[in-house]
Amino acid sequence: MGPGPSATPSGRRLLEAALLVVTAGALAGGGIAWLLGLPDIADVFWAAGTTVAVVPAVGWVMSALHKGRAGVDVIAVLALAGTLAVGEYLAGALIGLMLATGRTLETAAEQRASRDLRSLLEHAPRSARRRRGSEVSVVPLDEVVPGDVLVVGPGEVVPVDGEVTAGPAVLDESVLTGESAQVERAEGEPVRSGVVNASGVFEVTATATAADSTYAEIVRLAEQAGAERAPTVRLAERYAAWFLPLSLGLAAVAWAVSGSAVRAVAVLVVATPCPLLLATPVAIVSGLSQCARRGVVVRDGGALERLGRARTLVIDKTGTLTVGRPRVLQVAGAPGGPSQSEVLRLAASLDQVSAHVLAEAVVHEARARSLSLTVPKEVTEEPGRGVTGTVDGHRVAVGKAGLAPDELPEWARAVDNQALLDGAATVWLTLDDVLTGAVLLRDPLRHDAPRTIRRLRAAGLNRLLMLTGDRPEPAREVGAVLGLDDVRAGQLPTDKIAAVRAESDRAVTVMVGDGVNDAPALAAADVGVAMGARGSTSASEASDIVLTTDRVGRLADAMDIAARARRIAVQSAAGGMVMSLAAMVAALFGWLPPAAGALLQEAIDVAVILNALRALLPVPGTRPALEPEAESLIHRFATEHDDLRDTLDAIREAAGLLTTDHGPRALEAVREIHHLLTDRLLPHEHAEEQQLYPALNRQLGPEATDTMSRAHSEIERLSRRIATHVRLADEEGGLRPEQLDDLRASLYGLHTILRLHFTQEEESYFSLAP
């Protein structure tokens, strides 16, 4: 419904503003004349206002008919014409003002609701400062090519995707991600276009042109985002399909029963809910705005409405439910060989020269543990086999073991079995041609994945299916941990398309993915959702919704928003219709004259539009708001969790060692565990109890941390038990046979509790922070 297909937004706003001024002036002028005792002049003013309103109203009807729609604007035209015909000029002027007010209110609501989407366009940079040698010049953004060195000043927008080459860079990424927290990017780290420099000057080397950069893709999506007609809006027009003949029928009955055309006009006056059908797009546009604030770009209102009706979720694993990058799960060493730390240090020293994704993970873990790496020499890399070279005078190889499973030594077979059980990849370390150690790597679950799955079910999804090209073992483990309804591994793109189409035949289906291989399935789904922060361009282009932050939890936010916007839209349509029907019945019996009916209908229309504007308000309970103190503590303790991973590995290794070694080496391993518990782990747990949990309790309630406190007590108990074993062994000059079973059980039990406890904290608390 609008002034015509060719009208520009600015022309439409100008027309609506002029109509509001003229109709309000005519109504006010007529009112003054009537108060001065000049009824004829008052009628002239009111008739003029009515006539002026008829012209654009006819245009709106013609525009709707041109689009194949016959809405209740027809009733507005009939009511305006009827008031002129029967001389009820005051009622006509009131209807004219109602139309103008409704149009103006709807436009203002749309402008407010879409300001977050428009801000993306307004934020887009137009130029860049390029440095060549010692000279810095401002150039149009289109002239920037990969390899150019760009200077980004304080408060400026990073113009293209690149890599920090002179920094560090402190960035505000809220425009893209919705997160208010600033992030720091060190030299060599990637940075996305569209983020704002929140600190001093830094330099970035372009890795893409402006057209191929992250921000350009998001801008293209934002340009498509708007209040397109969703099924809910068409539902309102279906209401109009029966509401229009019903209104005309009631008007005819009123005229036939009373013999008065005035009563028929009164029925038509109260059956003029033009802003009623504008209220549904207002609710949808408001929902789009809320999604944008949460870092979710929705292409159109239809996608938002379908998301609100979704009942099935099909989701990819890698990069969606998991982090998308392998991480070290465990380090193991041969009995009598180097320690775990030394195994990791040797492997990482050699892997520094490899670009393999597993090598990057090994090096990252070694640096996170502050291990001193050596520059390797005489390095060669064989694709599919691994890397060999000289480290600290020793011949080192990292990669495949080069042995058949039955040729592996006993300790290595145990590691191989462990990798199979954990769904992990194994990188073997050979030292001077002897198999010496292993590093197990796995793509871990995102911390917020379990919470997100629960929220998605609460939002209305009753079937969750995971499709992945990965192996069955890790896929099934992820499905079991998250409680998914179905897991299908080894899926090709064609398999994913077939699965998505089959699910769509049963219910409205959402597909979430991030890779090139997900793009066809995203396009086939009722609602395709792309992980846009690190996902492929093809996935983003094939999707209806893009998560601009690397958190799948934002989909749960979007579902809550979509369901609420759709519910409010339906409420507005149905509520307006019910109130209008009640007023029509009153007018039929002569209880509501045309002028009073026009005032009442004005109130009805304004009420439903204001109700639709409720969709602009944040959805309650989408995410607990954290105080700065709690957020800071979460980041601190999350970092400490990462630092304590080697302690968990050491506990498990010591427990396993007790199975084969009861002598001084085993005692020394247990004594080392005692020191790790005393010096590192227990201080961490005590600090959580005294600092983190009280901060969380103030916002989440004490019941949120009660079970975690109980876990702390059990960790303390087992730690004391291990300390007692160490003291007894020292007094007796070694471990006694009667100690072994209990000590082994205590170590394994502590390892299990710590793994579960860390996972629960990361899921329940750490996932709340940006």
TrEMBL record:
CDD domains: Hr-like
SUPFAM superfamilies tied to this protein: Calcium ATPase, transduction domain A, Calcium ATPase, transmembrane domain M, HAD-like
Transmembrane segments: 17-37, 44-62, 74-100, 239-258, 264-285, 568-592
Hemerythrin-like domain location: 633-768
Organism: Streptomyces caeni
Similarity-based family: Belongs to the cation transport ATPase (P-type) (TC 3.A.3) family. Type IB subfamily.
Protein name as it appears in the record: Heavy metal translocating P-type ATPase
All copies of domain P-type ATPase A, residue ranges: 123-223
Database matches in Gene3D superfamilies: Calcium-transporting ATPase, cytoplasmic domain N, Calcium-transporting ATPase, cytoplasmic transduction domain A, HAD superfamily/HAD-like, nmb1532 protein domain like
Keywords: ATP-binding, Cell membrane, Membrane, Metal-binding, Nucleotide-binding, Translocase, Transmembrane, Transmembrane helix
Primary location: membrane
InterPro entries reported in the protein's UniProt record: ATPase_P-typ_cyto_dom_N (IPR023299), ATPase_P-typ_P_site (IPR018303), ATPase_P-typ_TM_dom_sf (IPR023298), ATPase_P-typ_transduc_dom_A_sf (IPR008250), ATPase_P-type_domA (IPR059000), Cation_Transport_ATPase_IB (IPR051014), HAD-like_sf (IPR036412), HAD_sf (IPR023214)
Compartment list: Cell membrane
Membrane topology: Multi-pass membrane protein
